[in-house]
Amino acid sequence: MTRFPILLLDYDGTLAETQPAILRSLKEAFDAVGVTAPSTDVLKQELTRGGTLQTLFQAIAPKSDERDAASFVRHYRAFYPAADEEETVLFDGVVETLTALKERGKTLAILSNKHAPTVHASMVRFGLEPFFSGVVASEPNFPHKPDPRVMEERVLPLFPDLPRSAFLMVGDTVADLQFARNAGIASCWASYGHGSSPMCRTRAGSADRRFRGPADGASGLKAKFRRRSRYCRAGPVRFRE
């Protein structure tokens, strides 16, 4: 990890277990726009792609237009705060891991396809803001992962004096791993997260690091996040340079 002073961390499925809140809000939004929601398994498969709400809706309702997608997104964002408050949790060991990374001199930034105000609200609720030097999340008229313009237009301006070799992208979905490849930076697959599809596993074959979960570590960093801890109880966390 010494050669990666900047860590770009995804949020959903990497730091926070948001899937229950997302699934609940998706089903409520489909109902609100009069589209039959697909099965939970289908929705989970779509979530492995790590795309945006618009791309997910258009994949489920291919005959829809941009106005339909915009309506779906509005409803989802209206429903999500309550679901997030009631169901989202941090993975065990997240706070301890972030603390240890900061103590080792790492600079941390969030890089997420999640709606920016939603990311900020969740970070405030869990007390994560002090750990991060920047948050790059979904905003209107800006590119999103895996588009390499995210790196050029949104990330590099935050760290203008650093080469791409200084960055490590840590995330759980195809969008994270493909973004790293497209942007020419190193990557780490958080395989305990939402991106367990065969496509994600294929992308992970070229990742520089892999976190499998509680019993696993990656060379250079051993960080153990466990699922579903409502109170963020400490998990065993070890770091090795």
Molecular structure report:
- The protein is built from 9 helices and 9 strands.
- With 241 residues, it is α/β, with parallel strands linked by helices.
- The radius of gyration is 17 Å and the shape is globular.
- The protein starts with 5 loop residues before the first strand and ends in a 12-residue tail after the last strand.
- The model is unreliable at 213-241 (pLDDT under 50).
Q: Taking all residues together, what is the mean pLDDT?
A: 84
The tally of strands reads 9
Shape field: globular
The level of helicity is 40-55%
- Beta-strand residue fraction: 15-25%
Oligomer: single chain
Q: Element order, helices and strands?
A: EEHHHHEHEHEHEHEHEE
Stretches with pLDDT under 50, minimum 5 residues: 213-241
**Main sheet specs:** 6 strands, parallel
* Structural class designation: alpha/beta
Report the total helices.
Answer: 9
How many angstroms separate the termini? 6 Å
Q: What Rg, in angstroms, do the CA atoms define?
A: 17 Å
In order across it, which strands form the biggest sheet?
A: 5-4-1-6-7-8
